[in-house]
């Protein structure tokens, strides 16, 4: 499960056979799509599976943790960090491995995250 969060609140990502997307050009909802694969092996989104409602990446614990990781000197990649355990929108406790990324001029661009579920304590 790999996602990217952007400073405008958008998110995009792939998880198993679904695509997650929230785009400010729509209604700020988090949409989940099924995927299809064409004859060349390219994967694209097909029909909407779920609307998770209002969502913004910048308010998520993984995004704020990733943005705070910092960056290597003279690199477009930030340090890799692991978040504290938090409750996901599905009601499952997870931790995320996060890494910020930067433009060639070192301006912050967004945060990558990979999810890991954790046992409930």
Number of helices: 1
Question: What is the C-level CATH assignment of the largest domain?
Answer: Alpha Beta
Assign the structural class, choosing from mainly alpha, mainly beta, alpha/beta, alpha+beta, or little secondary structure: mainly beta
Q: What is the CATH topology of the largest domain?
A: Nuclear Transport Factor 2, Chain: A
- List unreliable stretches of 5+ residues: none
Q: Overall pLDDT, averaged?
A: 76
Q: What is the gist of this entry?
A:
By secondary structure, the chain is mainly β.
Protein described:
It contains 1 helix and 9 strands, in the order E-E-E-E-E-H-E-E-E-E. The longest helix has 7 residues, at 61-67. With 121 residues, the protein is mostly beta strands. It folds into 2 domains: 9-55, no CATH class; 60-121, Nuclear Transport Factor 2, Chain: A (Roll), CATH 3.10.450. The chain is globular. A hairpin with a 6-residue loop joins strand 3 (18-22) and strand 4 (29-37).
What's the helix and strand layout?
Layout: E1 2-5, E2 11-15, E3 18-22, E4 29-37, E5 43-54, H1 61-67, E6 81-82, E7 86-87, E8 93-102, E9 108-117
Antiparallel strand pairs: 1-2, 1-9, 2-3, 3-4, 4-5, 6-8, 7-8, 8-9
Descriptive labels:
mainly beta, Nuclear Transport Factor 2, Chain: A, 2 domains, globular, 121 residues
């Amino acid at each position: 499960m790999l996602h990217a969060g952007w400073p405008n609140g958008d998110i995009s990502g792939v998880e198993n056979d679904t695509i997650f997307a929230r785009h400010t050009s729509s209604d700020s909802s988090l949409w989940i799509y099924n995927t299809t694969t064409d004859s060349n092996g390219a994967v694209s989104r097909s029909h909407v599976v779920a609307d998770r409602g209002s969502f913004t990446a910048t308010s998520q614990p993984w995004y704020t943790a990733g943005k705070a990781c910092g960056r290597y000197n003279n690199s477009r990649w930030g340090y890799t960090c692991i978040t504290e355990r938090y409750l996901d929108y599905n009601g499952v406790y997870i931790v995320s491995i996060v890494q910020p990324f930067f433009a060639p001029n070192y301006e912050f661009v967004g945060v990558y995250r990979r999810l890991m579920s954790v046992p409930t304590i």
